[in-house]
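hiii so um. not sure if this is the right channel but i have a protein structure encoded as tokens and i wanna go backwards to a sequence. like what aa goes where. can anyone help
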């Protein structure tokens, strides 16, 4: 029987690559649900090709256009963010690929866990904002959360077969982004165009900027904490410019396992969708002679302060990572529109973490409120 997949965020970078994978392995998977935020042209094309049971557009003003375009096909069409959150509960879904951007992934992911769906998680912000809550919910509902983020997929793959063997340390690798080796004098003047040119990975705009500031790696540390039940001091960041070693796990005997491969998101996507099995694929193979040297260096915490801010939010816990995330979302968006400079992103986050009230054990409602209040505060900074 084919695995029936719901893709939340099908028009984003991960969503599109997931559909490439499903097209390639169409005898194994079938698309049950597609949702998108705004990109109706692409959503229509995807729906026409894959003919899912249901399609949802979050932007309600586009409902009529979407509905008319798909009228001749046996596809149910809905609109609105509530519909995105509810559609994950459908009986006919086997696995939910959460590939939306930012805070918007939180509520649909929570609903999918409550509906006991297996989650392939690409939306790291969900774990940044509400990691502890999500973890407890997943345990309560006996739901598997399978990482799609390449670093976390690497750690996950290193842990296969390890049973109860304890992790001593995890090394998350970072490419260093487009501004590796640059100082704050240089960073002050970088433009969105410069920041959007990632050396190794082809990704969406938001995560590409997060990679340029190194915030992405800070988020990934928080994500790793909750996915693998780690303490902050068990997580280390190591810059590895070639992006071939995707991350490493050190066990208590001192042995280290690494997972390697060419930087291609299709690998972690198909691993999560098909876990615990591996498919024979036609993906490009790694050639050692193309990479005679793999190098590793320390991250530059002086020029890239967001990484330290993320670690401090992780150590503080409570609603602090939620504040970190909301401030970052507003600041990155403003930077992409050239309303603020590159280093102002750090400034927005620093001010928000200072200004917003800290809650040690926030409920979901308190996290939603924290998110809103942080966004409002950042709007006043603009
Ligand atoms: Mg990653």
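sure thing!! here u go:
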């Amino acid at each position: 029987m084919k695995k029936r997949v719901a893709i939340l965020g099908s028009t984003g970078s991960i969503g599109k690559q997931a559909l490439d994978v499903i097209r390639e392995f169409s005898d194994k998977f079938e698309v049950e649900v597609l949702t998108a935020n705004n990109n109706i042209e692409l959503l229509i094309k995807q729906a026409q090709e894959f003919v899912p049971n249901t399609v949802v557009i979050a932007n309600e003003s586009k409902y009529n256009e979407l509905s008319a375009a798909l009228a001749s096909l046996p596809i149910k069409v809905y609109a609105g963010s509530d519909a995105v959150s509810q559609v994950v509960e459908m009986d006919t879904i086997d696995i939910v690929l959460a590939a939306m951007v930012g805070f918007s992934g939180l509520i649909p992911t929570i609903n999918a866990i409550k509906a006991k769906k297996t989650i392939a998680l690409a939306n790291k912000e969900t774990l940044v904002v509400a990691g502890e809550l999500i973890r407890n919910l997943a345990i309560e509902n006996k739901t598997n959360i399978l990482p799609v983020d390449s670093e976390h997929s690497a750690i996950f793959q290193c842990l296969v077969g390890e049973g109860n063997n304890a992790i001593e340390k995890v090394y998350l690798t970072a490419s260093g982004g487009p501004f590796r080796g640059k100082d704050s004098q240089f960073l002050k003047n970088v433009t969105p165009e410069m920041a959007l040119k990632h050396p190794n990975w082809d990704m969406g705009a938001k995560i590409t900027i997060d990679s340029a500031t190194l915030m992405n790696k800070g988020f990934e540390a928080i994500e790793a904490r909750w996915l693998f039940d780690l303490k902050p001091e068990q997580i280390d960041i190591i810059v590895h410019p070639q992006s071939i070693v995707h991350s490493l796990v050190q066990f208590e005997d001192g042995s280290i396992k690494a997972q390697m491969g060419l930087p291609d998101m299709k690998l972690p996507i198909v691993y999560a969708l098909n876990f615990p099995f591996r498919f024979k694929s036609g993906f490009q193979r790694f050639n050692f002679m193309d990479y005679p040297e793999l190098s590793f260096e320390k991250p530059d915490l002086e020029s890239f302060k967001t990484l330290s801010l993320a670690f401090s939010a992780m150590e503080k816990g409570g609603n602090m990572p939620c504040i970190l995330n909301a401030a970052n979302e507003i600041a990155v968006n403003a930077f992409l529109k050239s309303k603020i400079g590159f280093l102002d992103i750090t400034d927005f986050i620093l001010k928000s973490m200072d200004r917003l009230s800290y809650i040690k054990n926030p409920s979901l409602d308190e996290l939603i409120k924290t998110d809103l209040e942080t966004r409002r505060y950042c709007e006043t900074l603009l």
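oh and The pocket of magnesium ion is lined by residues 149-151, 220 (CB under 6 Å).
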